[in-house]
Design brief:
It comes from Novosphingobium anseongense. By secondary structure, the chain is an alpha/beta fold. It has a single domain, classed as Phosphoglycerate mutase-like (Rossmann fold), CATH 3.40.50.1240. Helix content is 33%, strand content 20%. The protein contains 6 helices and 8 strands. The strands form 2 sheets. Strands 4-3-6-1-7-8 form a 6-stranded mixed beta sheet, sandwiched between helices. It has a two-stranded antiparallel ribbon with strand order 2-5. Helix 1 packs across helix 2 and helix 4 packs across helix 5. The radius of gyration is 16 Å and the shape is globular.
Length: 190
């Protein structure tokens, strides 16, 4: 077996209004949130940088790439789960039972007009297979990071959500590419 490549998944920094279900809402990041992401990635040896096309991820990716002489490529497949009608709301504003059903079974109880867990998995699966086998940083969102964990390490949604991935969390995975890529968690910094 080859030694694989390192995939670093970095959650975007704090948005201007933290604590909301932002999904596909393009909420601006704070300057401090970008700075924390830059500091978190400082010691990574990178050959490529990819990000979600949403500004809270893409602005941090550009700030990390620029001093390294790299160009951050945007890929919308690395977006957060689409929370549909819940986008922009705080958890307290969402029907408690509906939210509980979603956390329990995000396929059967996707947010109204939103995306199911399986759809997110399919999207991230395609994004993962599009990566070249080289040391890569992907600046993305908590849901997409959990989907990658599920796909690469075989974790179901409950185990993926058991990981605390606060803003600017850095998850490093050794990836063995192939028709069914596999991974091993080699680091988590929060």
């Amino acid at each position: 077996m080859s030694e694989g490549f390192l995939l670093h998944l970095l959650r975007h920094g704090a948005p201007e209004t933290p604590g909301l279900f932002l999904g596909h809402t393009d909420a601006a990041p704070t300057p401090g949130g970008i700075a924390v992401c830059v500091a978190r990635a400082q010691d990574l040896a990178l050959e490529a940088i990819v990000s979600s096309d949403l500004s809270r991820a893409s602005k941090a990716a550009a700030a990390i790439a620029e001093p390294r002489g790299l160009t951050a490529r945007q890929d919308p497949r690395w977006r957060e789960l689409d929370f549909g009608a819940w986008d922009g709301l705080a958890a307290q504003e969402i029907d408690r039972q509906a939210l509980g059903r979603f956390w329990d079974d995000p396929d059967a109880h996707a947010p109204p007009a939103g995306e199911s867990w399986s759809t997110l998995l399919d999207r991230v699966r395609v994004a993962l297979t599009a990566l070249e086998p080289r040391s890569t940083l992907v600046v993305t969102h908590g849901g997409a990071m959990r989907a990658a964990l599920s796909l690469l390490c075989g974790l179901d949604h409950r185990l993926g959500w058991a990981f605390d991935l606060p803003y600017a969390a850095l998850l490093s995975i050794r990836v063995w590419p192939g028709t069914q890529p596999a991974g091993q968690i080699v680091g988590l910094r929060t």
